Amino acid sequence: MYLGLDPGRDKVGFAFVDEEGKLIYSGILPASDIDLFLSILMKDDWERLKPYGREGEVSLLYDERLKGILLGGGTTSEKVELALKRLGLNYEVVDESFSTERARGLYFQIHPPRGLRKYLPRSLLVPNRDVDDLAAWELVKMWLQR
Asked: Which of these, 60, 71, 64, 63, lies nearest to 37 by C-alpha position?
C-alpha cells in the first residue's frame, strides 16, 4: 500500500491506497499532530488512527505493508517533509495541482447527491466536509497512473 499526504497550513489529509488505486483508509488530522501520526505509522498502531478517520476501515491496514509515501509538494509541505526526514522515512514529493478539485469529485462518487441535489451539476455542489483526505488519495492515484 501507499500513503498519500496532503499537507495544509492547519490540517493534513492522509490516505492509504492499494497498488490498484483503491482507497483502504483515509482521514484528516491537525497539522500539529503530524509527529504523533508518524509515530503511529512507524509502530503500525493503526487503531490510534480511528479518531482521524473519514473513509474506509482501519482494520484493513493490518493486512498491508507500506511501500511508499507520497507527499503533496505545496507551499505548506515543509513541516511534514522535515518530520519525515527527522524519522528517516523515505518519501517522494509529488505535484498536487488540481488534487483538491478532483477530491471533490471523489467525494461525490463515494457519497452521491440525493434528493433534489442529484439534479444539480456536480460542479455546483460543495461537499459537507473537508476533503483533504480525498486529495491525498488523488495524489496517490495520479502517481500510480504516471
From this structure: 71
CA 97 to chain centre: 15
Q: How far is CA 125 from CA 26, 115, 128, in A?
A: 22, 13, 9
Write out the E strands in the chain.
2-7, 11-17, 23-30, 53-56, 68-72, 92-94
Q: What is the value of pTM for the model shown? A: 0.93
Q: How far apart are CA 140 and CA 77, in angstroms?
A: 16
State the angle between helix axes of 34-43 and 78-86 in degrees (0 to 180), rounded to the nearest 10: 40
Cβ-based neighbours of 140, under 8 Å, separated by 6 or more: 2, 3, 4, 15, 17, 21, 70
Summarised one tens digit per residue, pLDDT across range 36-56 is 999 999 999 999 999 999 999
Query: Cβ distance 3 to 25 under 8 Å?
Result: no
Determine whether 51 is exposed, middle or buried from the number of CB atoms within 10 Å of its CB (0-12, 13-18, 19+).
Answer: exposed
* pLDDT tens, position by position, 130-141: 999 999 999 999
